[in-house]
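Hey,

Quick one before I head out. I ran the complex with iron/sulfur cluster overnight. Inputs first:
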Amino acid sequence: MDTSAAPIALPRRFAGWLGAWLDTLPGSEPRATCDDCAMCPRDPTAVAPGMGTYSPVTKCCTYVPVLSNFLVGDVLCDTASDAAAGRATLEARIRARVGVTPLGLTRSRRYELLYVQGRDGFGRAESMRCPHHLDDGRCGIWRHRESTCVTWFCKYERGALGYAFWRRVQDALLTVETALARHVVHALGLPPRTLAALFAPRPSSGVSAIDDADLDERVAPAAYAGLWGDWVDREFEFYRAASAVVDGLDAARVRALGGPELEIRLTLLTDAQSAMRSPHIPARVVTRPVSIVGHSGDAMQVVSYSPLDPLSVPRTLMDVLHRFDGRPTTEVLAALEAERGLRIAPGLVRKLVAFGVLAEVE
Ligand code: SF4
Ligand code: SF4
């Protein structure tokens, strides 16, 4: 992360919690230009083979978000006119009843199958498009999106270090989402019979077979009613109540509800944030395997930590990368300047390490 970057636009709850728990809010990822998607080039034929592109119809939203009950309520309670279209997509999802429980909205088993088996369609398969992705390319529930949608980017300012940082943010937020969804269910006093349906024991095999109803996304009325108890047909009211329950929690209380798991996640998150922001130039580095996926002018497009985020490296630098062989970095930089007149700023070494082109020798 460029530490001077403006804080990223987070859902209000996440901004409040992370603001209370971290020294600094996460910065934006300016190369993930979502309004003019960086993965949807205007001329796909100009893209080098090996550098993937996404469809402008889907962008990276070939994903159905799992929304905790209070986030569902947040969307329903957002009555701003610019939220109406997105709210309607959520209301349709609730009315369809597939994956709709007091804990929130989850994916259908059919979609899970597609998602796991169809990874190569990510970013392109229209059948996988998120129901909240509007035809004008916007996210209909942007102000209340969940942890995965908040933390996934195609490109990171600090390369692999940025990716690792955002995965830690996701872990922490997901822990909070899960804990608060359960807190809501408890706070709203669901009776034992409803809780038993909601927290049914897992099958001893660990998986239950996928049947015709799963594949056709049909919901058995009796099973659905069992999940909701007295709240059946009052799902909208329940989700709005969930939002109100979480409104009553300050950041300290939320943290306490996250328990030891959240403490561990926050420790790892803080550590990843320090690593990402550190100005440290490694004393010794070595080259790492990379793929060259294209070239333009005097630069080569190099893929290291992610095929979505190639790094443009000058040919003159590519030609001497092998000189970084574990000897002191200052010695290698001085030798390259003396022998070739090639001056490489230490900050560039730091960037090559962040992107996984070079690796620090421990
Ligand atoms: S994060 Fe998604 S929408 Fe944003 S630029 Fe990348 S692929 Fe496009
Ligand atoms: S909720 Fe929004 S950001 Fe997340 S996948 Fe759907 S459209 Fe994309």
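The chain has 14 helices and nine strands.

Talk tomorrow,
K.
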